Amino acid sequence: xxxxxxxxxxxxxxxxxxxxxxxxxxxxxxxxxxxxxxxxxxxxxxxxxxxxxxxxxxxxxxxxxxxxxxxxxxxxxxxxxxxxxxxxxxxxxxxxxxxxxxxxxxxxxxxxxxxxxxxxxxxxxxxxxxxxxxxxxxxxxxxxxxxxxxxxxxxxxxxxxxxxxxxxxxxxxxxxxxxxxxxxxxxxxxxxxxxxxxxxxxxxxxxxxxxxxxxxxxxxxxxxxxxxxxxxxxxxxxxxxx
Length: 242
Ligand code: PGA
Prior knowledge:
The structure is a single chain. By secondary structure, the chain is of the alpha/beta class. It is built from eleven helices and eight strands. The longest helix is centred in the last third of the chain and has 19 residues, at 171-189. The model has no long low-confidence stretch (mean pLDDT 97). 2-phosphoglycolic acid is lined by residues 8, 158, 163-164, 201-204, 222-226.
């Protein structure tokens, strides 16, 4: 399967900036699948901008319920209606800011699939957990508790301490964790777990993308800061093996 390079814009981007960040992506031919996960407010105009291109569109969260009295929240069907085809779920910032547990992530994964969105489920250990050598245990539990049987989405391994910090694990550590995630997916999901893409995320940038994307079991990247500058994101995309 082609690698997937996904941009996570987080809470960044106004309408006036959409064109400068996203339009350059539509002009190049990419060896990898390219996805941008904009704020929900930009999905509709982004869909129009990306319509004639191969660039995919996604959201950053959805509610676990299909509809109802949840002021301020957005359902998976609403995001699909606005143009999203992917949704990031269980990002560490949502786990920290909104107290999202694995059980909540599981419910959101099911809501996303019911609405036709492909979930990108984020997992990853804190720095304290890494220092205590608990990363395999933590990530294994996150996967087992947040992925339903038949899960056919994408996994993103994002060590929390590498997000937005400029620090990354060593290549050996990334390769070891991706092998662990693959083994866990196969144990949990059977043959289905064999083909799922496992993205690496956390301070991916033009200078380290090629090396990270060349590691075994790395099926792409989830890119935060560097996805907000078209030229940097394109450089990360060019680092993909295809
Ligand atoms: P970063 O963010 O690339 O800015 O470290 C990645 C993410 O949080 O998805």
